[in-house]
Amino acid sequence: xxGITQAPTSQILAAGRRMTLRCTQDMRHNAMYWYRxxxxxxxxxxxxxxxxxxxxxxxxxxxxxxxxxxxxxxPLTLASAVPSQTSVYFxxxxxxxxxxxxxxxxxxxxxxxx
Amino acid sequence: AQRVTQPExxxxxxxxxxxxxxxxxxxxxxxxxxxxxxxxxQRLQLLLRxxxxxxxxxxxxxxxxxxxxxxxxxxxxxxxxxxxxxxALKYSSASKIIFGSGTRLSIRP
Lengths: 114, 109
Known about the structure:
heterodimer; A: mainly beta; four-stranded antiparallel beta sheet; B: mainly beta
């Protein structure tokens, strides 16, 4: 069982380019999340999805979009990347139905926008 | 608005010394609080949650509603405790969690 996987591991991107970060989980968790981790700011929620077919905005959603076509996948898209989106991005999932609220995190994607 | 504050960016203590990582929160509802840990080259993972009232790896944390705090404590630090620690608050029924800015704990031999 892989848990949560993210791809790519790291990426250098030119400003203005479109980029999709991939996230897949095999735990059949209904809730999934995207965070960005920045020094001194901790983790900030970008978008979340409580169940397949629904999404919601977190603390810092501007410049990002997500989709949740099925339970397993939750891609994050930067339509036109800007340098301020340089960060480490973490995907997470949780089993809300089990009410444990424990979030399980992926290994992260390090994104650099030049 | 809900907020989680970790006032210390870095905490350095000697092996065997007591450790206390501070966390304060602001939330008008009934809080659910967690501590997450990220060891070097590992994924962020749950350390403990206040509901469970458990001790994990010798760490404990007590929710103090009067002081709106959830400090993480360990009586005797070990070198393997060196990591980044995040305090987190669940603030809606959608299981949205807000994280503090993190404290890097460094244990000196």
